[in-house]
Amino acid sequence: MRPGQKHAIIVLSKGKPVKITPRQTRGLAYFLLCSVIFWGFQRIAPGPPPGAILPHNETNIENVIVELSGDAPSPGIYFLPPGATFQDLSIAADIRNISNQASLQKILEKENHYHFENGLLEKKGMIKPSKRLLLGLTLDINQVTKEDLMLIPQIGEKTAEQIIRLRQGRGGLRKLDELKEIKGIKEKRFNSLKKYFHVDKISASSVVSGQRIILSLVGVV
Questions:
Q1: Beta-bridge partners for 18
Q2: How far apart are CA 184 and CA 35, in angstroms?
Q3: Considering only CA atoms, which of 62, 59, 93 is closest in space to residue 75?
Q4: How far, in Å, CA of 97 to CA of 120, rounded?
Q5: Distance CA 80, CA 89 (A)
Q6: What's the maximum distance between 2 C-alpha atoms anywhere in the chain?
């Protein structure tokens, strides 16, 4: 033991005595103090203001998730509170020169892509499947293409083609359980795949091989 280190604390580690010097003891105490201060700060720190951009793991299923592109000062993915409007998105993205003022009170549609250009803020459709998967959002099994399906783990080209054929033959799937009718998709594999999909209500239009077929009462248009 070096001069000045007259005392040591002895602890047991795996049944064997281990000496901890006073210097090490002070370091451990300092680490524990910093941990307690950080934990306390996390508990009392205020949450982000409404409309702030939040990491996905801090959101809940009620939030409105939208993508913003174009000439906006801050394009990207936004997590907004339920019932958020075009105006809420423009405030969060610091857009100040919107020409279509009448649209500001419109409710944003969740999981959609919005584009701002030449003073116009407009909806461009759903967020692309590749980005949806990164955000933990499910894909509509009746809308995805073969290429979209192949982005999902455990789905290769052959399985993707089988899903498309099954969907085509039925004019759309009505429940995810129908995937188990595909050779090679048993209960275990199905349980790992179903978290990536949802089924929208099938109406007069259904998706076949990535193309929309419009059905009418008199036939196919």
A1: 11
A2: 50
A3: 93
A4: 9
A5: 8
A6: 99
Query: Using one digit for the tens of pLDDT, what is the confidence trace for 53-104?
Result: 444 334 456 889 999 999 999 999 999 999 999 999 999 999 988 888 888 9
The model carries a pTM of: 0.61
CB atoms within 10 A of CB 89: 22
**Do 131 and 148 touch, CB atoms closer than 8 A?**
no
Burial class (CB in 10 A: 0-12, 13-18, 19+), 14: exposed
Amino acid at 177: D
Cβ(121)–Cβ(67) below 8 Å: no
* DSSP 3-state of 209: coil
- Tell me the two tokens of residue 107: 């409710």
Give the helix/strand (H/E) hosting 6.
Answer: none
User: What is the distance between the alpha carbons of residues 41 and 47, in angstroms, rounded to a whole number?
Assistant: 12
